[in-house]
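Explain this fold:

***
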Amino acid sequence: MAKKQHHEEHENLERWLVSYADFITLLFATFTALYALGQTDKAKIQKAIESIQKAFLTSGGVFPQRGTPFTPFEKEQDKGTQVPPKPKDMGQNSKAEQEVLDKINEQLKGIFERVTGLSPSKNELEVLKTANGFKIRMGETMLFKPNSDKLKRENIPFLFEMGKRLARLDLPIQIEGHSDKTEDIKPGDRNPQGWQLSVNRSFNILKFLVEGAEFPKVHISMAGFGDAVPLASNDSAEGRRKNRRVEISVITPDQNIKDLEW
């Protein structure tokens, strides 16, 4: 008897169409979901997703449906606290911020007393919150003699210690000089508003912090305001004394003063 001849099965060259069809199905489902998520109506989004799951993820598809359908917005979107702030947390400074500012103020006073043997005069040293961070406000007598832009030699150690602490913060600072209307850098120099004096004082502090305290140049700048930003009236000796000052503004990230490690 003749042996039955075995014929090879003809190779199906169209099997790739199955995978391609599944891929197209998933691609269509993906773009449909993205379009639905771009709408603002939550009910429509949920309905669209459920329709996609039923149509494309049931048994027989690439990935059989298992478990419960995906539900967007399982939690309500965070709309912020509904509890009003406590009175102690309202106003210019929060309690936490004010505690940090008070700490910096006390430490600076302690440094000044230690290196000079003297206590700062009342209102000669203040640490205040600003819109961009905080500032250290120093009266004229803490660093300069009247009508002079030369740093007091006996108070240079104080400026050095303060500069080192500011450098450790790794934050930008600006040195800002202020004067009154009667200050003059030298006799005969026509400068009734003392603008040049405020600039020179700012520059000399900046130069010392960079060269003496090794404050990074990239984080320091200066400004001279003359008598343009007075704290009090220039009509009295006390008012002019308050106006003659130097301020070091410290720019904090997102104004998070309470997170500073001074």
Q: What stands out?
A: The first strand starts at residue 125 and ends at 130. The beta strands are 125-130, 133-139, 173-178, 220-224, 245-251. Helices lie at 16-37, 42-56, 95-116, 140-143, 156-169, 195-211, 237-243. DSSP finds seven helices and five strands in the chain.
